[in-house]
């Protein structure tokens, strides 16, 4: 009779289950507190440098309650940073990365104050402009960006030539590329200008340069591309390079949105609330927007999600 092999992941699975039902994984808590990457935080825990409520804990999956538990690293108490949420109208030539060895302009450089712990949600490539959400709220970011949550992104594109109704139908049906099936949730002709056309495009997930690649295959090169909406968020009157912090009511609405199932959201992106409709976040006057420093000239494109 073959010897039964014990599962090495059994204790880890139990810890993850406990963390998901009763709190947050210790490893994630320490990383979110700004100590280091999750991998390095796991090492600190296994080395016995972390205490929870005066007890040394060596299991990275140990569940902690950020509101009540006292977590110490080398005797120093760790606290989670206050969640922050910013809307940014990203200009061309700006990268959605926190580290660039070449020193090119980054989206976080356009946020006032200390933005080192912020990250962009739903990346835009270097030559695409428009709405970006920047936050340090990892859970909300995952719900906004992960394909399984089906958060709609809306774009306005100016393309060379004028697509026919047949072409628009093909874009809705989808096209196969080496990295999968690309498909527009919806595409609508807006207007014509000379030898170009303006389209409104909706996606359920932002794959690598999806809009540009699909339109190029149809013979309509993208001249200009701007994201104008992301879930309940809208670009509003923010000018390129401007950003503003979300208001308390907007943050509550955003959290309501991510807590709702995709089928429970209304057609405008917000959660259904009976017969009333809530305006999209971002439809506010931009007079309080914080002018950001001017971004340097554009650089070569860098594919992003």
Give a summary of the structure in a few sentences:
This protein has seven helices and 17 strands. By secondary structure, the chain is α+β, with helices and mostly antiparallel strands.
Shape: elongated
What's the gyration radius in Å? 22 Å
What is the level 1 CATH name of the largest domain?
Alpha Beta
Structural class computed from helices and strand pairing = alpha+beta
CATH topology of the largest domain: Pseudouridine synthase
Could you please describe the fold and organization of this structure?
- It is built from seven helices and 17 strands.
- With 305 residues, the chain is α+β, with helices and mostly antiparallel strands.
- It has two domains: 10-77, RNA-binding S4 domain (Structural Genomics Hypothetical 15.5 Kd Protein In mrcA-pckA Intergenic Region, Chain A, Roll); 85-264, Pseudouridine synthase.
- α2 (26-32) packs across α3.
Write the topology of this structure.
Elements: H1 10-22, E1 24-25, H2 26-32, H3 38-46, E2 50-52, E3 55-56, E4 63-64, E5 71-73, E6 76-77, E7 85-90, E8 119-121, E9 129-135, H4 138-145, E10 153-160, H5 165-173, E11 175-177, E12 180-182, E13 186-193, E14 196-203, H6 210-217, E15 222-230, E16 233-234, E17 243-245, H7 248-259
Parallel strand pairs: 9-15
Antiparallel strand pairs: 1-4, 2-3, 2-5, 5-6, 7-9, 7-17, 8-9, 10-14, 10-15, 11-12, 13-14, 15-16
Helix pairs in contact: 2-3
Q: What keyword list fits this structure?
A:
about 300 residues; alpha+beta; Structural Genomics Hypothetical 15.5 Kd Protein In mrcA-pckA Intergenic Region, Chain A; Pseudouridine synthase; nine-stranded mixed β-sheet; four-stranded antiparallel β-sheet; 7 helices; 17 strands; about 20% helix; about 25% strand; elongated; disordered N terminus; disordered C terminus
